[in-house]
Amino acid sequence: MTHYVELDVRPILAAGGEPFGRIMETVTSLGPDEGLRLLAPFRPVPLFAALGSKGFTHQDREIGGGDWEVLFTPAFAPAGTAGEMSAARWPGPLMHLDCRGLAPPEPMVKVLGAAEAMQQGEVMEVLLDREPSFLFPQLAERGHEWQGGFDPDGVSYRLLVRIGPAS
Amino acid sequence: MTGASLSKWTLSYFAAALLSLLVAEALMAAGYGYPADGLRAPSTLAVVHLSAVGWLSLLMCGALFQFVPVLVNRPLAWAGLMLPALVFIVLGLVSLVSGFMAMDGLLETAAPLLPMGGLLLSAGFAMAVASIGLTLVRSRPLPIPSAFVATGLAGLIVAVALGLVFTQVLGGTLSAPVFAPIAAWGVPIHAAAGLGGWLAMCAVGVSYRLFPMFLLAPDPQGTGTRLAFLFAAAAVATAIVGGLAALFSGWPVPDVMRLAAVAAVGATVFYGRDVINFYRARRRRDLELNMKVAAIAFVSLAFAVLLPGALVALGRSETAVAACIYMAAFGWLSGLGLAKLYKIVPFMTWLECYGPVLGRAPTPRVQDLVREARAGPWFLLYFVSVWAGTVAMALGSATGFRIAAAGTFAATAAIAVYLVRARMLSDVDGSRRFPAGSLRPSLLYSLAPDGR
Questions:
Q1: For chain A, how many structural domains are there in total?
Q2: Cβ B214–A104 below 8 Å, yes or no?
Q3: What's the Cα-to-Cα distance from B112 to each of A103, B98, B117, B402, rounded to whole Å?
Q4: Residue A2 and residue A4: Cα distance in Å, rounded?
Q5: What is the C-alpha separation between A81 and A96, in angstroms, rounded?
Q6: Whole domain around residue A23: which residue ranges?
Q7: What pTM value is reported for the model?
Q8: Rounded Cα gap, residues B352 and B360, in angstroms
């Protein structure tokens, strides 16, 4: 079970300060089984990549009043419940691609190209016109994981790709 | 959700299919078979089976091994059967066609070529049906495109079973009285099950899935599509079940076939409406050559449906049947097949060779593998010569038909050359042809990304 060190950057930001240095300081001081519970007045998207590259997955939720709580968990630490683990393994997407209206195989080219620019553990969300049958073996070959399905409207196929270790 | 890999031996099927087509066209250009000889002459049977089994069936099997996994989004079952099935079908075809040529006196041999051919073909197609059929069975309930393919497999089973009986009766290995009426009156059922049941149903099913994909058009879902399937399935059921019932109870089989033909015309009307809608509702405005050519193939299908009516009205029913089958087999199915090869071969090659480096190195686009402006005129020659051949056949001009068949042979040979060039990446600019990490293509097989 990961123990989370809490850091609330809302007072720092309210006072006009810059919390980034403080966040990195806290992360550096974390023990091997420790994660970071960050409280912020907005969704701190740039941090997802910055801490992702340090081996942290993240799980974010809005806690009301526009404030956000983000749990940064070391990627190989034993997480809590299965739900927490899955949410931590599949963090909110950093990259969004809309490949609807593109003729095959352009969506495949775009997805594989975008994946090369991302870090391990990051997630990309892709909208497509149909299930990308020929893309799946390419993703598997590169060690990426994916989940996907048609939206309730049955028109758009929504694919999440979780980037695997660089090969 | 494992998706679809490249089918390893599909290109070997395509190569064997194209070779069979070229041989059949060369024989026609040489005046071998109908209309120089009779409709049921051994020479005609040789040409017909080279076209229907060697060309169209191998083409369809190769395409289904690749695209049924796409239709149902699951891997092909028993993929190991793909190569043995090809070997058995090719050996069976060579034996069968040699058997017909021996009947014709062109070959002198006492070998039981026809019964051997029938057995080998049955074994080969049984393997293909097992692999494709099991893939479909595991994916129930089937959407309409896959339902067409499943019905097509039923047609194939009946066509092959009847063919097996014919070869054994003709070869003298089967003489039980129960088979006598089949051998005497079953040929129209065999032909309807093969051409209409197997080849047409599968071509329609695959096109229902591939055309929206290539044209960026909405998938068909309406009542019209269900009616197209119901009419087509009714036509196949009438021809096969009704035909066999008529055969054993002594009714005239041709009457049942006429009833099946009416249902087939109904299916064509609803299918044609869907095809027109694919083209109209497409979001991709510029048509690739393969979709332009496919449109000409559909016009040929319309001719094939309209032509017999006109010829029967002129009192020439045998000519009507022959011209209609020639137009459907060479104008529609073969024209569509050549058009789709011109899309599928470059796509499979692109995915195999450049898939490993996509996003990591600059790669050519799929359309960089082909030279549409150069191939276009040959496709045009193909259709013009097939239409001219149909007219010559309708007018009873054997010489005119030979000249036209020479045109289809030349056009097919040129298209085959362009397909080989696409496969070998010959038309890709030198500097971009082999980026580091890309694979070199082999002419006859593909390497799947997961190494299967």
A1: 2
A2: yes
A3: 52, 10, 9, 31
A4: 6
A5: 28
A6: 3-89
A7: 0.85
A8: 15
